[in-house]
Amino acid sequence: MALTAKTGLKAIFGLQIGIAAVLLAQDFSLVAPEIRWPTSAPAVTNPVAPGDQTRRFDPDEVRRPPMPGIPMEGAANMPKRLYFEDRPEGGTRIVGAISDGDGDRFAEWLERQPEVPETLWLHSPGGSVGDALQIGRLIREKAINTEMDPGAFCLSACPYMLMAGTERRVSAEAKVGVHQSYYGQSTVLPAFLAVEDIQHSQAEVIRYLSEMGIGLGLMAHALSTPPDEIYILLPEELTEFAVATEIIGE
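RESULT FIELD:
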């Protein structure tokens, strides 16, 4: 009898290992597409032309714009979370990567301002999609304009903040780019739950674009561009999809 119980326990243990192996294999199939050979696309700083708009996406290549009195070496690295700074020309620039919790930080920063800013200038390599949507909805609620200076970048999740402005002015020398969003799905979850989570996240983005009056054709470019690349929108695409209401300096 003892031998039978021992054999049964081994069988149950073996079955558990088998189930775990299947789930891990399923989950790996979700993240495997992200394991890619390094892209051969040019750097994001390279000029684009119609039909040649895919660039390498490396957030470290997006540099923080220099400020008066700050040495270039001190302004080289992009902040790891959003930073709100005064522009020499007036107004406020939002610069840096969008990190978890930046939506709440933006709301707190906005609450501390003596009056709602008329315009926010953007320069960001992107980051947390959820926080970008939270910030964008607050920008639209407060009827704030968004703008981009010459040489500024707004990539990945950053365009969700840009498209929230009441008026959205983009310099012809700025770059706005979109790609597939990475939602940080867990490889611990079964595959079907991870896929469901991604689908919910994408549905939330589509709802957001509809709220902001953005052309959903934009998603075709985003979904066809892998996370390690970025599709840079031409000025005519920015206005076609209503990401920008005005291109400055054409």
